[in-house]
Amino acid sequence: PPPQNARGRQGRVCCPKATHAFPAARPICALPQKAKPRACLAPHTLPERQKPPLPKPPTALQYAPDCPAPPCSDGLSFMTTQLYIGIMSGTSMDGADAVLVRMDGSRFLSADAHSFLPYTGRLKNDLLALQNSGTDEIHRSRLLAQELSRLYARVVQNLLSEQNLTPAAITALGCHGQTVRHAPEHGYSVQLADLPLLAELTGITAVGDFRSRDIAAGGQGAPLVPAFHQAVFAAPDETRAVLNIGGIANISVLPPDAPAFGFDTGPGNMLADAWTQRIWQQPYDHNGEKAAQGRILPELLNRLLDHPYFAQTPPKSTGRELFAPAYLLERLNGGENPHDVLRTLAAFTAETAAADIRRTAPESRRLYVCGGGVRNPVIMAELACRLPHAEIQSTAALGLAPQQVEAAAFAWLAACWVRKIPSNPPQATGARQACILGCGCYP
Fold first, then answer.
1. Domain of 234: which CATH number?
2. Residue of 266, 278, 265 whose CA lies nearest to 341
3. pLDDT computed for residue 412 by the predictor
4. 137 and 241 housed in the same domain
5. Are 203 and 140 contained in the same domain?
């Protein structure tokens, strides 16, 4: 019979032979009080699906020095590398990127492969419609979550096929989902994805819903990438800034001796994409060719800049809720040249980002840009004009292609979830504490 001091909470008996140290409130080797004691399970190998994949992380890789290291609860070796997949579909709503990432424990090593599947026009329109109040929203959202997850599964399967890998080779995948509502002031942010379906279709542990835990801790739930940017792009001797220009633009400031911080600067490509679709029935301005034919309209630019969001101090985040296409249309006189409008929108994106960089990271002399906006020479030129003392490059200069950065970040977040490493940056989101982000579903 077990000794008296082996009795846990609520009449449960802890196995006296267990070698792991677990919190008293959550004994892992526990039996009901009336159950017949049996041999301790700890020394034996658990079936594969029951193994808790939560090895102890190397503390030096935690983005904040006060992140506690959780107890190791399995035998995974940190000397072997693991593969993860990150899936990202951003506010541009053009499709889903999947990136295969190689990790050593919780240390990012490389992005080994990339695959992309575009959204159909019908899927994008259905997602856009769900961002506004309407009828039968719950039913439509669940159907769209399933459709998205089937698309996510296809892009994962394409990636595995191209690399001649099986699902068993992947430790976990991190799926951002598709944002349709972001309302941290009301305590929620909705990213559509059906994690059980995704795990079922891929045969891989699926981790998602990364923003909710940060919001529960009082944060904005965004941006989540500054901790990843610091882990991959920071330097020990200088402050760097990373600007992601997706549908919404966000900045990460990476000091050499302090945790990273960041926030959303405002619209990235979102308004320009909507204008290009409206005028030319094209999804985006390829290589900025149409914007290059226009000129900046100062009065329109000033009207675009006249929004309370740009005067707010961080932490802050935004989305289509504030900067939908109507935001642009309400500020037009009606007689503007379409090319001039597009050029002004490029200046708008650059000015809001540059102003925040000057305000929050005046000492930074290096700016690394990622996201779709890096392929627009007009935006890049406008940034250079507004930040003459900064060296501006794509993140490719640091070894990670700009179109892969965000998806790679969610692979890294999945690795943090597996290893119970807090991965939200409270300095960026405003959360009360560092949190382990995400919810997972095993295949």
1. 3.30.420.40
2. 278
3. 98
4. no
5. yes
35: tokens are 């159950």
The residues, any chain, with a CB within 8 Å of residue 400's CB and separated by 6 or more, are 111, 232, 233, 370, 408
The top-scoring range by mean pLDDT among 6-10, 39-43, 368-372 is 368-372
Same domain, 250 and 192: no
Q: Does 287 lie in the same domain as 369?
A: yes
The 3-class SS string of the chain reads: CCCHHHECHHHCEECCCCCCCCCCCCCCCEECCCCCCCCCCCCCCCCHHHCCCCCCCCHHHCCCCCCCCCCCCCCCCCCCEEEEEEEECCCCCCEEEEEEEEEECCEEEEEEEEEEEECCHHHHHHHHHHCCCCCCHHHHHHHHHHHHHHHHHHHHHHHHHHCCCCHHHEEEEEECCEEEEEEHHHCEEEEECCHHHHHHHHCCCEEECHHHHHHHCCCCCCCCCHHHHHHHHCECCECEEEEEECCEEEEEEECCCCCCEEEEEEECCHHHHHHHHHHHCCCCCHHHCCHHHCCCCHHHHHHHHCCHHHHCCCCCCCCCCCCCHHHHHCCCCCCCCHHHHHHHHHHHHHHHHHHHHHHHCCCCCEEEEECHHHHCHHHHHHHHHHCCCCEEEEHHHHCCCHHHHHHHHHHHHHHHHHCCCCCCCHHHHCCCCCCCCCEEECC
Q: What is the pLDDT of residue 71?
A: 34
Relative to beta strand 30-31, strand 13-14 is antiparallel
**Would 140 be classed as within a structural domain?**
yes
Q: Which of 312, 318, 384 is nearest to 350 (CA)?
A: 384
Task: Give 122-141 pLDDT, tens digit per residue.
Answer: 999 999 999 888 889 999 99
The total number of structural domains in the chain stands at: 3
Q: What is the pTM of this model?
A: 0.81
* 50 within some domain: no
Q: Does one domain contain both 215 and 235? A: no
Residue 42 within a domain: no
User: How big is the chain, counted in residues?
Assistant: 443
Question: What confidence category does residue 42 fall into, taking pLDDT thresholds of 50, 70 and 90?
Answer: very low
Whether residue 218 is found in the same domain as residue 296: no
**305 and 373 within one domain:** yes
Evaluate whether residue 342 is within a structural domain. yes
Is residue 34 predicted with pLDDT exceeding 80? no
- Give the model's pLDDT for residue 134: 84
**Domain range holding 7?**
1-33
